[in-house]
Amino acid sequence: MAQHKQTAHDFIQCAFSPQVAVLTSNDAEQLCQKNNLSFTQLVQPFCRLTTEAQIKDPNNVLHTLQRLRIGMIDMNCQVSTPLVAKKMMNDTVTNEQPQIHEGSRGNVMTVGDYDLQLSSATPWFEAYRDVFLQTIPPSEHEFLKHCLACIFVVSSSHPEPLAMLHTLSNTQQQQQSQFPNKLPQWFSPNILKYYVLVHDMVEAEAAKAEAVYQSMKSSFGHQSCHLLQINSRSVTAVETTDTSFPDPWGQFLHKTPDNMEGVDYDGSASSGAEEGSFPNKVEEGTEKHAINDGLNGIGNNSTVIDHPLALSDSLPSPGFEDYPSLPSKGSHMSLSSVQSSMTKSGSFHSEKGRVMGHGMCLTASDQDRIRIFIHEFSVRALIPWAERQMRTLNELLMSRAGFRKSIVGTAKKWFGGNTNKTGQVANTATTVVYSKDAPELQMRRLADLAFLFQLYEFAYNTYHTAKRDFNNDHAWLHFAGALEMASLSTFMQGPQSQRVYPDHYMESAITTYLQSCKNEPYAVRATLTSTEALTSRGKYKEAAMQFIKMMSEESDLRAALLLEQAAHCFINMRPPMVRKYAFHMILSGHRFTKSGQRKHALRSYNQALQIYKGKGWDLAEDHINFTVGRQYHNLKQLENATAAFKHLLTVASRQPAPQQNAFLREYLFVYRQLLMQEVEETGLQSNTLPELPLPALDSNATRVLTGARPLQPHDDKTYATGVWFDDVEGSSKNWEKLEELLVMSANGGSLPLAYRPSNALYSNSTDNKFNPVGYVREPITIEIYLVNPLKVAVTLTDVKLLWSFLPTIASHDKPQLITNETMLSAKNNLADEIVQGQVVKEIILQGSDRLPVKMTLVPHQMGELRIYGLTYNLGSHATTFMAPSQGPDSLGVGVAGSHKASYVSTVYVRGKQKIEVQGPRLNGKKEEMAGKMYGPDRRLDLSVHQEMPILQVSFTNFPKTLLCGEVHLVTVTFTNTGSIPLQKLKLASTNPKYFVLGRSEDLKLPANVYSISSNLKDNSAFVTCDRNSVKHVCDIDIPNGVLHQASSVSLPLWIRGNDIGGVHEVDLLFYYQASQQTTKPRYRLLRHSVQVNTVESLSVRAVAQRACKHSSETEHISVTDFVISCELENLSQIQLSRSHVREVCVRQISCSSQRWGVEPLSRTAHTDTKIGSRELLQVCLKSMVLSESAHRPDMYTFTDLPFQNTRLLSSATPCREFYLRSRVKLKSFDLETTVNPPSAQLGPPKVDPELAFESLNCAINLDMALIILWEAQVVDSAGEERTCVGQHHVIVEKPESFFTSYPFQILPKERPPIKFTREEVTSEVIKPAFEVLTQLVSYTMKHKTRQTHSFQQTRVCLLGVTLMLQNNSEADVTVLVDTSRAQQRLSDIQDAAGQALENSTTGFSWVGQTQRQVTMTPKQVLELSLSVSFSRPGVYNINNLAVFVSHTNDVSEMTLQKQTRPSVVSVLDKGHQ
């Protein structure tokens, strides 16, 4: 329950105060009308005693009266009819309107997560309560509203004052005796009569007044008369004095609400079921009336779905909310008659010459005299009269008590009746009717009189006694009244009472009023007083239940007020029940709406919205916002209505699609009205656009692209892909590394100090600390994501970007900020000349759709360009439900060409939405980590610089699919489409191994990929090959180093398919500078990303083995020759209806090396080198060391072995370049682009074994490359054949190992977990590789292969063997030849086939010196003579000796050399031939 101005005790005292009737003469009334008041109204503010008074109870005990209040009733006032009373209560609530203006704040209350702004006081409820209690008519079951006395008032200017007083007294007596049921009701037959003579201090004579007063005292007694002197200020003085006086009478006068706003209070709203229910949704009606019907406060459309809280039309419709039988809906009494009756009864309008203020003729002395009058009337007349009445009633009841106990009790027992009853029962189910002199009523009269004069203990005892009698008699109305007053008597005693407040008494009284008596007004009165008592004791829950219990359909206004008080009870509980508060405020707002109190309904809904807002109660929040918007619209507060409807159009809305569409149309209609209202009020159209709620912008997803969109492929020409929004953002690191390489190449190998990677596409994942750079007359494309949070389609028309531009002016004048946010077309045309913007005609967003929209701006001046929003026309139409989501494509406007119907809504508003991007969260400092701090994001703040050259790169005949190793010729064209020449054109690539860029002269050569020569004899060429020339960056040769505007240059580009099948992506980055550029940035970049699909074609395997030819002693043999075996396999498969390789023809095998050359093993020409699908071709070649004249350190020898009549020049472009790229191992991006690589580890530097033992490693280092040139017949899916050429490379690095053209990828090994141990650092001993140590020296045997001997003549056959040793290294070595076959030294020896050698000594043996040690110089060839003996004929492998080599002086570290091929000797016996 809200806080009230009065305490509970003060309220109950005012509600149950002694009532005094006032009867005035006409002259006295006219005298008071000088103050625009009646006599009753004149004394009303002074009817409370300001001092204490004394009173004795019937037991002659003295009691003190505190602030006794007297209620004055004018007998001349017309009795208020039920309809008038209803109008008075409605007007009273309307006059006490809450402050709902912006900026008004109530008491802020923090409850959990809620910060609520609550109104601590509800003056409208207090005013309603006072009027309600005043309009309740007196009842026969109680005497609280009966008049105790009557004051007769006459003016001293009356010709016969005494006669007039007698006339007034007789009038009162006649009314009391002849019309007992006419109001006012009287407490007893012998009421107190008091006579007052009113004297005008200015106009009347004082002597006459004094004489009349003395006569009055003589006639009526001095205790019953009073002379009241007023109007000490004349009317003329008041009119001439412009002074404001306090008005204490205003709070007691009924006010008629002002009609300044005809929508504040809907006086035509009916009560209960008569009123149409307030809809919570708008139905889809016809297009003509849909919006108008949806905006009416209470419509007549039968299709509108009723509010869930609305009442059924079948309920009865009482005409007056507080009384059971009042005029019905069909009554002819209108509000005009009610107004006229109210004017007669309580409102006095000014006439000509009448003072408009209240009490303007009264001075402070006059007001003091009125207070004295009330005090003397109360103390000298009323209180003594009350004492006598209580004493008389008490004596009467005491005298009847004994007789009643004996006789009446017996009668009740046997006959069940009461002799004092009339026997006429009004309603046997509810109550009975007592006679006026019945003891029960006398007891109730005594108790009421004691209660009115604050004798609460005596009153409680009397009520308690009476309620037992009423209960026994089943007089339920009297019983309920006694319970009610007994409960209040206990409460009013306060802390002095020894009893606990009997709230069950009040609960029983309310229940009896409602159920047994069907008397709702008195139940409401009991509820009003009981809840005050409960809340004063902190029993808010019980008070709330009583308020809710009284919520009925009889009165919407009363139900709304009681529900509101119940809500305040819930919020004042400990702990507060916030959601119950909100729910009951919603119910209260609904009943306020039905009663026509729109402002109060609005306040109630706004109070509840604080709890439901943002807490997940989506449907409840939508209902509140919709109702609030309707109420604001009815109150002509269109701005607030628009804000309320705006909250309905959010992503959290869970309403069905038709409901959302109705919300949208309602919002558009109200917003359009608001804009029209602003134009009507100001006469001008606003220069700033309003912000719209739809569609939602995903601002952080906004991307900005500087530069034009790449051109699409045309015919066989493909353009550089450049940068566009569909690029993968994860590849930005590769582009940054390529840019670093280019800048370092252009800057002499180092990066500038202020280097910063350039960027053309700015998004949420890029570093946006710096402003993007745009250029004059180059487009800037913005990608904005529009999100439709609703389930219905919305239409956007005339969409364009909002920007502000600050031009760069060379003069000292401050530039003026230019923007295109204006409604005036002239200013927009001027803005378009500075920055030309794209206008999208129409965008259709389907429900729950997220659509990217790309829009372009083209600046025409240098300056600072800021993009801050989007402007458009927002509309909705029913046809958009079936329309597909459409938006602008990457170039223009996205309008469905197949749809003929227009999607433009008939109701639309133009507005804007701001694009506000949020930078990354900062976590560097302590305060940044503790709070939420964000860095700058300047992606929408662009800096427009002067014009720059624009490079356009196109590729002609660029393939999409290649065979592995296929070489394809492409023509690349560089065009400068800008207006400034460019220079320093460079190219960087992530993988330069697979393309070769030629010169412009190469285009004049024949169209063949390879150069051809018919000279087959000269099959070798010496070419200088610089491996360091193969880098990620290369310079592009353009004529004179400058490419002028609108000029082009074409160059050949050879592309080779990757050796691994699959899809491969290669990034190309072009770098160029303006020829005349002084400002930053100094260079520009152009990206091109290409994907090539490679198909497996040919696989090559090769192995080099040392030559081992058995010959006679006279035959020459070289231990340095190798035999190379090549295995070529066609990996392709023939597939019908699909592209495949039919056959591969090997045209030539070439060798490139600094030491080696190749020649065929056979002298016969081989021309059949075609390889079908899944076939193999075996080719054997012989390699030999080149002569010294051809062996140069900077030269490579290319030896060609053609298999056809023409020779392909492997030493020419592009074969040589592709070979050279296959030999070069480029550094990784991370190492090549790092300017200052960090040290790998701390500690002593490590020695590279490859460099430390280079002289030994050359023993197995062949450094030989085979180039296989082939030609393939490819059949496409259409069955057509084409011929393509290509090349494969096999690098033979060492002998006795297989090498392939298919590159093997070494997967990184998993590193073990790091362990921190304390170990002593020991120097690691570096040794050559074991594979090198076993092949330092190669050897072969020269001997006869066939030996004939007569074993009959000589038992042993001797054969001389020459052992030829070749030092393959470039270091001095020590060689030990051992023929002893010692088991401990030869047990681990294996032959070439891996089989262990036989340890048998039979058959043959070496003779002579068994161990021979020699020293060999680098590359030395040494011959040793050995002898072998055979004991019997047979075939023998004599290669079983051991050769040990040491490259140091330590002979103990000798290494057994790898054995060569077997050396076989056939020994024949001459005797058996």
Would you write up a description of this structure?
The protein has 32 helices and 57 strands. By secondary structure, it is an alpha+beta fold. Strands 12, 24, 26, 28, 30, 33, 38, 40, 42, 44 and 45 form an eleven-stranded antiparallel sheet that branches. Strand 2 and strand 3 form a beta hairpin. The N and C termini lie far apart (140 Å). 38% of the residues are buried.
Strand percentage: 15-25%
Mean pLDDT: 80
Helix content: 25-40%
Oligomer: single chain
The Rg value, from CA coordinates, equals 58 Å
Distance between the termini: 140 Å
- Characterize the main sheet: 11 strands, antiparallel
Number of strands: 57
Secondary-structure-derived class: alpha+beta
Estimate the global geometry from the Cα principal axes: elongated
Number of helices: 32
Low-confidence stretches: 100-104, 259-263, 267-355, 413-430, 879-905, 1111-1117, 1234-1244, 1382-1401
Task: Give the structure's gist in a few sentences.
Helix 11 (364-415) runs antiparallel to helix 12. The chain is of the alpha+beta class. 28% of the residues lie in helices and 25% in strands.
